[in-house]
């Protein structure tokens, strides 16, 4: 499992270096062109976070789809590892990459706060508290999205293999999966926000396991490499 995760991350090293280079260049530009005490960097960081998140999701889709189509990519599926184990490792690798992006944004925010001023707790020190429930919820949601992406691509590669408009079918499959699974994940807003978020977060993890098993089963039983 660990070796597969390492492999998944290392094969994206060029993309990771590119992201680091762009983020560093933007940070230098921001520091040079922003006066101390200005909060304009918050908007820049928000746009950077949005761009990196979109790039990460696109990367997850691109690399997984390529793995199922190219000889070099699907060689990993010829190993003794089960489809579930490989899919789980790919999901965890994507999460680690997402956490790396989050850590990068946190470092950039801290640098900007120190050099440009910003959020303080009244004593001149940076302070922000993010509770465990939002973190639990966010990680569950990301796993849920990644597993739905993997399942959608795998369905098209197996059940609908050879059919035209594969991209459109993948999108429709993803939309249908998330819409159907979402009915089990969200509570009515009559429940307390904290309980609702906790319940939804747990549902995300359960759906992630179900979709990962489903994707692994398709790979082991329906995939023709």
From TrEMBL:
<feature type="transmembrane region" description="Helical">
    <location>
        <begin position="168"/>
        <end position="186"/>
    </location>
</feature>
<feature type="transmembrane region" description="Helical">
    <location>
        <begin position="44"/>
        <end position="65"/>
    </location>
</feature>
<feature type="transmembrane region" description="Helical">
    <location>
        <begin position="92"/>
        <end position="115"/>
    </location>
</feature>
<keyword id="KW-1133">Transmembrane helix</keyword>
<keyword id="KW-0812">Transmembrane</keyword>
<feature type="transmembrane region" description="Helical">
    <location>
        <begin position="15"/>
        <end position="32"/>
    </location>
</feature>
<feature type="transmembrane region" description="Helical">
    <location>
        <begin position="198"/>
        <end position="219"/>
    </location>
</feature>
<keyword id="KW-0472">Membrane</keyword>
<protein>
    <submittedName>
        <fullName>Uncharacterized protein</fullName>
    </submittedName>
</protein>
<feature type="transmembrane region" description="Helical">
    <location>
        <begin position="135"/>
        <end position="156"/>
    </location>
</feature>
